[in-house]
């Protein structure tokens, strides 16, 4: 009984890290680009993930996750840098309240009824990659004690609890000024893209997943410096104060 409780707790904590990562991406993309395509991407990602788990089962651990990390990380890094560039310019010129960008821009919402494929792809990739990570955790932890279903309980609890907290807080996050929210999404996508791509090519991050926090600080500081530099060469913008970056 004690071993089962320990396994559930360990799996819950490990899976929570992965769930928080994908939840962060989903909230950021959904709030800045719209929920329609984001939720469709989430749904398709869950279907793909479920199919992989059913078909492959325990053999899931044999998938070369490194290649998937390189692909997803590189794509997220491309999206993140484009988003970050637009957000830096927007905040530097218009302040954190921001302005809605034209349809199809990397950091803005699409206009009309057009489907936002950028939001869809980001949500899909994040869901599948992190979902596979959770599946690996369940299979690996559970196989060591021959209690895969016990490990699955811990992972399931992480998905329900962390997901529930995110759903409860999304209304409050939506109140964040438009420009600040887009800047945060650009920083997060760039951070996760760098981390996953680095893992894929064999980078041994100090502190493993906790290295994300260090990368987050570096990317955020770089964005703040870029905002300050842009604001310096575009005087007369009363809504932006360099010290607040």
Task: Summarize the SSE layout with pairings.
Blueprint: H1 2-33, H2 35-56, H3 65-94, H4 117-145, H5 148-173, H6 178-200, H7 211-233
Helix pairs in contact: 1-2, 1-4, 1-5, 1-6, 2-4, 3-4, 3-6, 3-7, 4-5, 6-7
| Share in β-strands | under 5%
How many β-strand stretches? 0
Q: Give the CA-based shape.
A: globular
- Considering DSSP H and I runs of 4 or more, what fraction of the residues is helical? over 70%
Q: What structural category arises from helix and sheet content?
A: mainly alpha
Q: Low-confidence runs (pLDDT<50, min 5 residues)?
A: 100-107, 237-245
Largest sheet: none
Give the total of domains.
1
**Radius of gyration, whole Å:** 19 Å
| Series of secondary-structure elements, N-terminal to C-terminal | HHHHHHH
Give the terminus-to-terminus CA distance. Answer: 51 Å
**Averaged pLDDT:** 75
Our count of helices gives 7
């Amino acid at each position: 009984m004690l071993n089962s409780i320990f396994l559930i707790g360990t799996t819950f904590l490990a899976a929570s890290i992965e769930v928080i990562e994908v939840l962060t991406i989903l909230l950021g993309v959904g709030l800045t680009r719209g929920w329609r395509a984001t939720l469709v991407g989430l749904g398709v990602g869950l279907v793909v993930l479920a199919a992989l788990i059913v078909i492959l089962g325990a053999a899931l651990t044999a998938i070369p996750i490194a290649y998937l990390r390189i692909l997803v990380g590189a794509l997220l890094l491309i999206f993140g840098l484009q988003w970050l560039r637009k957000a830096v310019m927007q905040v530097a010129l218009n302040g954190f309240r921001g302005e809605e960008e034209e349809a199809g821009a990397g950091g803005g919402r699409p206009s009309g009824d057009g489907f936002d494929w950028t939001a869809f792809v980001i949500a899909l990739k994040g869901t599948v990659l992190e979902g596979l990570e959770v599946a690996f955790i369940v299979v690996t932890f559970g196989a060591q004690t021959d209690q895969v279903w016990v490990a699955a309980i811990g992972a399931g609890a992480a998905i329900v609890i962390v997901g529930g907290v995110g759903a409860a807080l999304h209304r409050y996050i939506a109140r964040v000024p438009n420009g600040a929210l887009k800047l945060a999404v650009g920083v997060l996508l760039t951070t996760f893209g760098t981390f996953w791509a680095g893992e894929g090519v064999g980078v041994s991050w100090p502190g493993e997943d906790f290295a994300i926090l260090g990368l987050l600080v570096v990317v955020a500081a770089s964005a703040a410096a870029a905002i300050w530099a842009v604001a310096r060469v575009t005087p007369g913008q009363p809504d932006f104060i360099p010290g607040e970056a």
